[in-house]
Amino acid sequence: MKQFIYADNAATTKLNKEAFNAMIPWLTDEYGNASQPYAFARKPKKALAESRKIIAKCINALPEEIYFTSGGTESDNWAIKGSASSDPDKRATITSAIEHHALLNACASIERHGYPVTYLSPDSEGTVDPEQLSAVITDRTRLVSIMFSNNEIGTIEPIAELARIAHSHGAIFHTDAVQAIAHTPIDVKAMGIDMLSASAHKFNGPKGVGFLYIRKGVELRPLNDGGAQEFGMRAGTENVASIVGMAKALEISCSTLNENAEHVLKLEHALLERLKESGLDFVRNGARNHIPGNISVSFKDADGEAILHRLDLMGICVSTGSACDSVSTQISHVLKAIKLEDNYARGTIRISFGKENTFEEANIIAESLIRILKK
Asked: What is the pTM of this model?
């Protein structure tokens, strides 16, 4: 292969070298079980505590409000299932129709057990209107869960306003921030977020590890039973090396957030301007307020899967939407929810730039698309 361009950073990101180096001691010399009482466990235990502090600082939380998980899917499932049965008088959940499947399928699960779920419809840009939430929420609502930003089209939701409405009815507010954290500023206290899901591999950390922020005072049942790890709330031996790597990656990404955002926005602008100049008939999906570098484009009367495979043959990695839908040729639930016309929706790809992408790569992607679609 003459070239390789990775432009699917919304699916996963390259592990940060500093994060990798931070992990090594906990995989080799300091391999002790942090839950044990002897001296060999003290360093791993201290590493977990320090990682909790670093992560908490990045989102303005308390260290004891950070609970380590295996990733975003577990965090979402825990938030939904753990809250559904925690209050017999408040059984209802409200979410949106464009959530990640981890959350939608968790909601479907609690519905099968008799817990009502209401799904809000976004507008054509993927934004959930706070007034729509106000119209359906009641004092019987236990949880409102709206993703911070959409994984397919990048739209950032009005989180603070949605959380305010939830709280006005005594409900808890959860957000799936997997696609947003370290890419846009998040302050859980200022925004009124009670629970937040995150996954390390979306911000140059290792795969298979994440966390759930749970505000002090929020009642949540454990998702799995076992030992007393994670303050008795999440059983299972802690993955110390990956947790340390996640903390280091998040610390680095948050400290360089503004410069990274500025860089990928410039790449985004360059690519879209070149596509416009070419005369191709396409629409850019999502709102103006979006995750930098997340570009969902739909080409009229094209085949998104065919475009993906043609680009792949050229050594360019993109997605047809969310990575979880990459094996399906059906129009995604997000594009259906924003009512994108079918003749555009079928020709949708997602290009997601990261900090390591260059202007040369953005130009190559644009020219490759023009070559494919102009034929």
From this structure: 0.96
